[in-house]
Amino acid sequence: MPLALQPKLLRVLQEKRFRRVGATNERECDVRILAATNRPLEQLIRSGRFREDLYYRLNVVSLEVPPLRQRREDIPLLSTFFLQRFAQEMGRPLTNIAANAMATLQAYDWPGNVRELENAIERAVIFSNGNTLQLPNLPAPICSVQVTESACPDIPHSEGSLSEKLDALEEQLIHQALRDAQGIQAQAAELLGISRSNLQYKLKKYKLL
Questions:
Q1: Sorting pLDDT into bands at 50, 70 and 90, what band is 181?
Q2: Are 113 and 67 in contact (CB under 8 A)?
């Protein structure tokens, strides 16, 4: 946002009034602002490129979404969702992702975050044959990532809705995390990137306690 525009927005937020271009009278407004950015606003404030008062006026409730490489446990679920969607749109019989393809997806750093993952799955669906998405179907930069064979299971092929399939996959991932953590819930929760209380909720949900 240009620096000259920032005080105008700040005035609207503080006074809830604005004047249209060319108008002589002010109008009242009652709005809720949802703002998003991938820029480091604190650094922009220090460099004089973003107003500090506007920042604190906007920053009432702050939600930080980590990059995909910091929440790799989301990759199987997101990949499943995109696979289901694009397979349906393109009329392909794909229902499964090969284990080595999933391991590679989880090893890649995803500089483009979820949008890049979405595009990668769409591209893979276009070039896939059969009911399983294979590693060579993925874009070359992703295929070039060196990984060992992953313990991550294939996306389960079962009857039911997308929500039921995602639940089945989540249950498998929780089983794997508990095995890797030798049954220690705190360590399993850390491996999954969730809180211990969230893990305990899911253990009760899937009757794993």
A1: confident
A2: yes
Please tell me whether the overall predicted TM-score, pTM, comes out greater than 0.70 for this model. Answer: no
173-182: long-range contacts (C-beta < 8 A, 24 or more apart)?
173/73, 173/76, 174/199, 174/202, 174/203, 174/206, 174/208, 175/208, 176/151, 176/152, 178/208, 180/151
Of 159 and 69, the structure prediction assigns the larger pLDDT to: 69
CB 165 within 8 A of CB 87: no
* Residues forming CATH 1.10.10.60 domain(s) in the chain: 158-209
Side-chain half-sphere CA neighbours of 48 within 13 A: 0
Q: pLDDT digits over 51-76, tens only?
A: 999 999 999 888 888 889 888 889 99
Structure letter (DSSP) for residue 127: T
The beta strand positions in the chain, using DSSP E, are: 17-18, 27-28, 96-97, 132-133
Closest-CA residue to 13 (of 53, 64, 43): 53
* Residue 90: other Cβ atoms inside 10 A: 12
What top-level class would CATH report for the domain 158-209? mainly alpha
Q: Right CATH number for 68-145 from 3.30.70.1350, 1.10.8.60, 3.40.50.720, 3.30.70.60?
A: 1.10.8.60
